[in-house]
Design brief:
alpha/beta; Rossmann fold; 3 domains; 6-stranded parallel β-sheet; about 10% strand; elongated; disordered N terminus
Length: about 725
Amino acid sequence: MDFSLSQRDSARGTPDAILAGVAGVAVASLGPLASMAPRGLPVWAVLIALVGLAGLARRGALGRLQRAMPGTALVLAFLALASLSILWSPSPRAGLTVVEIAYIGLGALAGGAWLSSLPGVEARRLIGLFLIGVFAGVLLFAVEAALDFPLHRWWNHVPAGVEIAETNVPKRTAVLLCLLVWPAAMALDRAGRRGLAVALPAVFAAACLLLTSRSAMLGIVTGGAVFALAVWSPRLVRGVLAAVLAVAFTFVLPLVLLFDRVLNLDGADWLFRSAQHRVEIWGMAANRALETPFFGQGIDASRALEPEGAVSRFGTLTDSLLPLHPHNAFLQVWLELGAFGAARLAGAWRLRRRAGPGGGAAAPVRHGADGAAAATLRTGSLRIGVGNGEHGLRHLAGVVDGRHACRRPDAPLGRAHPGGGRMTVESGNEPRRVLVIKLGAFGDFFLAQTAFSAIRRHHAADHLALMTLPSLAPLARLSGLFDEVLEDPRERSLGAYRRVRRLLRAGRFDRVYDLQAQPRIDRYFWLLAPGPWPEWSGTAWGASHRDQYPGRRKVPVIERYTRQLAPFGIVPEAVPDLSWLDADTGGFGLTAPYALLIPGSSPGRPDKRWPAERYGELACLLAARGVTPVVLGTAIEADLARAITAACPQAVDLTSSTSVPEIAGLARRAWAAVGNDTGPTHLVASVGCPTLGLYCDASVPIQANGPCMVVHHRPSFADMDVGGVLAAMDALPSSR
């Protein structure tokens, strides 16, 4: 059973021709652009941001950007620190660097949110175009490498006599393609092309990287090794990656000083010259970082640090200590933004690893994501700068393909989260995991039966769970509609919320339907922070399918559920199917005809009760006609039942004597029923018994439901006389 991806159906939700065309061109051009003109990536990032914003606006889904917390909060904190550091940065283009980082982030946020809302067919089209572009870029670069880069020479105005293979021009391209092949391999793997998924990075390494960039070669070899190791022990690999990330951000300065000052690797004969030079650059950057350990030298300071008498063994230092950046992203963060910047960026990366592609995906996807992360860490530690277009490309490439690579080719996305991507937890033909939340109360549970049945039909092949109150859990299990029933603790203590969080996270649900739609359940949504979040239909701020209809509580319950479920193509029927709820009632010794009287209500709402004395009068009138009055209720209503039987000795008191299935069985065989706005009244109406609901202004008549239920309403019960009630019972449809 397919999941729809947006709050509109696929007929209305597909992008128009212009938007689809621009998006297709942008996605398909990524590979060739990385191969030939990596300096054009800023234009590409701006285009992705504009396409994403336009797509969200067209769908009326700009609210999806609200789901960017808490990951984006950390990125914004990083940008705020970077903006503040402009005040002390020596670089004249520090402000421009902040702008570059900002629009790359906007592209990732807006583009990712829009891609997540696309119908499955359109998303698969973009995946195909992305793969075509990556294959074209790799092929173009391989041919260029074999022919000594003629197009690169022409494009970058490199003279024929210069050895271009040793310059930064092809090396930068090699690193970019190295980072792109992993999301492409993930997409191929999810499409069932595992051979191509393995061959793509292998062929790229064999055909291109040996001719140019050692950093790129190390990146792709590391990614491949991690992928293979993850097949054997994914938990070990993910733990190692998390540890490496923590060490990289926390101990990069002492490690660099160890390499430079203690081990003197910048002069080690066994290292190739570029590696020696890199160690020297790291040492210079670390020395300057130690001068401003908390807030750094300022954003983009790497480009403009004065040599201050420093001497390089590998060339003459002119007006800058470093060649653009330290060739190590972690060290650059410490140099430019200090410990505070490193902490913020590490937090954002950690959230991305927890909630991004692979965070809850099937095993092959986790392995691919681990390989991609390892390649990024490797290239980031050797070559990439934070403000560099390469770093932005990796983020945006992950948005373009990471949100789609983790899904089956025939299924739309499943898991969503406020800070990033979506993923599914299934592989092959495994069922998706879906949760319905409906706590109660008793009557509301039966009013929701039409929604339960419709959701079950829609997810016939999926694992469907219900979270409800412990008192209602046996009924939910008896219905046969749910594969699993979770019991809500109902308490409001911190311990109770922790138990709910464990239930939700252990369930690994792909989608949640919140039919309760109350602030308490809205808090359940945020218990999943920092993610990943499933698709969530409800009233919670940040939910993927947030119900913002202002008149929600003022429409009939069936209409409310119909509105909420419509984005998924789920249509509840007007009449619930409670054929599963019945019992033998012969033991009560009742003879037809009999009428059910339900004089109670919840203990805290006595204002919903028509007076027991009038029920007694009504019982006498029914008995005079030959209809036996049967009083239903719990022990709480025992006093009410005694008052009725005292007024009418022919009445039968069954309070505290019936189970829920027996109440349904009695209702199926009753001449009619009359009752207040309470659970048993809704139950007998739901099974098809002709029912008269007695309502005053203390109740909401729109909550009534049932094929033969009629609401008898007066502003006050003082205005509701017995004769009028009896006449209304006579007029009930299908009365007998």
